[in-house]
Design goal:
Elements: H1 2-21, E1 51-54, H2 56-60, H3 81-84, E2 89-90, E3 100-101, E4 131-134, E5 138-146, E6 150-162, E7 165-177, E8 188-202, E9 208-222, E10 251-269, E11 272-290, E12 318-338, E13 341-356, E14 363-379, E15 382-392, E16 395-403, E17 407-416, H4 420-423, E18 424-426, E19 431-433, E20 439-448, E21 450-451, E22 455-467, E23 470-472, E24 478-480, E25 485-498, E26 502-510, E27 512-514, E28 526-538, E29 543-554, E30 561-563, E31 568-570, E32 582-591, E33 594-601, E34 614-616, E35 619-620, E36 625-634
Length: 636
């Protein structure tokens, strides 16, 4: 904490004179697309709009859009991955813990996947890599110091080797101490180390373009299993936080991921390109527990031990599960523009396997896909899109999208495979071998856009029909529903501006689920987020400030519980994660290019009937504590 204030003081002493002495790119003519590149002495001044970035999908879809670096304040205080989704994920109430989406959505991958998804939220996948077009070396540092030593650091450096060749590297880390029963200062719940390297190049005539990246994440979690219920141990209490009694002290999960990615394209004729995509991915998932300790009481009594007693995972007092997923992908296709119409067709080949110390043979797969897309644009406000992918012979995904100034509508129909983990798993505590049918889904989404000068109101509706859904049941093993589920989810997004500086942003969803499989989806009936804040400049416009209050609410529900040994969320019917509004106060401000946040968590602690709240059965949400954060850019 002391280091944070020293860094902040140095930064402010450096930034304020700089702000007063020079004209930066933020202060130029707003009608100029590259405003402020020159100062009064005609010297080049670099800033957020001289280091632009783009995503691969914009290149592939021929909608090449470069975006400026983010210096906005709205939502900056929600620096954690779960908070950044505005709490649409359920985690274990600490930074970097296992997480699952609260609302159902259609999977992007209709073919085989590993099924170990608890830490997806913390991995920067290839489609989320930012590629840069920068005119100068650019460094971004973001450091977040959460109360209770929940810390996060992101460092990124990019530069241009040549005007048509850029490279970059990034390092990200999480060090989050246990919020429940830590025994020392560095008794971490989560330790994450991730890095990525990327490059993009285009030929001088613009006909050839290449994007490539490598990313690696090692996510270490010291599992706790949640708080021991008072009905099992009368000395265990729920809202004692550092003094809580937890199930596990000698159990650890690791999720290691590596991805190599290459995309390149060549323009054969004007408006017609051929392209190739290559991917190589690896995921190693391990879980270790010392069952010679009290941790053994958490797990089921039915243990499966290999007959080969020379193996570590065969020891009677030890759990040592290991799963290794690998994948190779090659995609070749062509695309182009014919007037206002974009077209794409491709052939994709995937192969991979799931290996385990317990498997007698690997669970392998080979998949062949045919796919394509079509897009038409009358102008930037009127767009239609259609795309489809066929997994030969028994999987598909087709979707359509219509965008207008007043209404957006999308439709998706898919038939996708169960995950490899759902089909086959062998470990010390659980074993199964299933032959599930593919899951089918129809999804319709619609949004009415009523946007005015001082307010926006956007009613929306999502309708899902899902059959053959695969889930983890109350016995913590996968099962397939024999009937359908129907979801109707009306929602409302609104943003009101008062007197030009006071904002009220809200979103609310109501979920109605019917059908024979309705109980297999544990979605809160009511889900609400809202924030009220002041947003404007102070001190002769040298400082831009957001000061406000944010509240989130979920209605009562039997939220899925979490099993560390399989790294899966599963259904339970005993623990009601009761309704509880959580209020956070925040202050975000920006001086020149530097953003600073202060967030006081759980402002309303001690003022309601309950002493606190739960996010997952056995895991209490944060107590009241202060978080700090700082983000700044350098351009030389």
């Amino acid at each position: 904490m002391r280091l944070f204030f020293i860094v902040l003081a140095i930064l402010l002493s450096w930034e304020l004179p700089l702000f007063a002495q020079q004209t930066t790119v933020e202060d130029g003519d707003e009608n100029s697309p590259r405003r402020g590149l020159l100062d009064d002495s005609t010297k080049m001044v670099y800033g957020p709009n001289t280091s632009l970035y783009f995503y691969e999908k914009s290149v592939r879809n021929n909608r090449f859009e470069k975006m400026e670096l983010d210096t906005s304040l709205t939502g900056f205080h929600n620096y954690e991955a779960v908070a950044d989704t505005w709490y649409k994920y359920q985690d274990l109430a600490n930074l970097g813990t296992a997480a699952r989406p609260i609302f159902y959505d259609v999977p992007e991958q209709i073919g085989s996947t590993s099924g170990f998804e608890a830490y997806d939220l913390y991995h920067n996948t290839t489609d989320s890599i930012r590629y840069y077009d920068t005119k100068s070396p650019h460094t971004h540092i973001a450091a977040f110091f959460g109360g209770g030593n929940r810390n996060k650091l992101d460092v990124e450096f990019v530069r241009n080797i040549k005007p048509n060749w850029n490279v970059g590297i990034a390092y990200r880390t999480i060090r989050a101490r246990k919020t429940l029963n830590p025994t020392r200062r560095d008794d971490n719940n989560v330790v994450n180390d991730s890095y990525e390297m990327h490059t993009n190049y285009h030929s001088e005539n613009g006909k050839y373009r290449l994007l490539a990246s490598f990313s690696r994440m090692k996510h270490n979690v010291n599992e706790q299993g949640g708080i021991i219920p008072p009905e099992i141990d009368t000395t265990s209490l729920y809202f004692t936080y550092e003094d809580s009694k937890v199930w596990l002290r000698n159990s650890k999960a690791v999720d290691l991921r590596q991805e190599y990615h290459l995309y390149h394209e060549y323009e054969l004729l004007k408006g017609w390109q051929v392209y190739h995509v290559f991917d190589k991915k690896k995921q190693e998932v391990t879980f270790f527990s010392d069952l010679g300790t009290s941790d053994a009481a958490f797990f089921n009594d039915n243990r499966f031990i290999s007959s080969d007693t020379s193996l570590v995972h065969s020891k009677t007092d030890t759990t040592n599960n290991h799963n290794h997923f690998s994948e190779w992908r090659n995609e070749m296709g062509f695309k182009g523009d014919f007037g206002p119409v974009y077209y794409n067709a491709y052939l994709k080949f995937r192969s991979g396997r799931m290996a385990s110390r317990f498997f007698s043979s690997n669970n392998s797969f080979t998949e062949l896909y045919l796919g394509g897309a079509l897009r038409g644009e009358i102008n930037e406000n009127w767009v239609f899109e259609a795309e489809g992918e066929y997994l030969i012979p028994d999987g598909y995904r087709v979707s359509g999208l219509f965008i207008s100034p007043f209404l957006d509508i999308s439709y998706t129909k898919a038939l996708y495979k169960p995950t490899l983990a759902q089909e086959r798993y062998q470990g010390n505590h659980y074993q199964w071998d299933n032959d599930f049918s593919n899951t089918g889904v129809d999804q319709i989404k619609g949004t009415i856009k009523a946007d005015f000068t001082h307010f926006k109101i956007r009613p929306n509706l999502t309708i899902n029909r899902i059959n053959n859904y695969v889930y983890y049941n109350e016995e913590q093993v996968p099962e397939q529903a024999s009937s359908e589920a129907f979801m109707v989810i009306p929602g409302l997004n609104a943003h009101f501006i008062f007197a030009g500086k006071f904002h009220w942003q809200s979103e609310a969803y109501y979920t109605l689920i019917t059908g024979g499989a309705a109980d297999k989806f544990r979605i809160p009936e009511v889900f609400v987020n809202s924030r009220v804040f002041f947003d404007g400049p102070l001190f002769d416009e040298n400082v831009y400030v957001q000061l406000g209050l944010e509240v989130r609410y979920r209605s009562d529900n039997f939220a899925p519980a979490y099993m560390p040994s399989t790294q899966q969320f599963y259904l339970q019917n005993d623990f009601n994660v009761y309704a509880y509004p959580v209020a956070d106060a925040f202050l975000n401000f920006r001086i020149n290019r530097t953003r600073v946040l202060f967030r006081y968590n759980h402002l309303n602690a001690g003022y309601l009937e309950n002493d606190g709240y739960f996010v997952t059965p056995g895991y209490t949400g944060l107590k009241n504590m202060l978080d700090l954060g700082i983000s700044w850019y350098f351009f030389d």
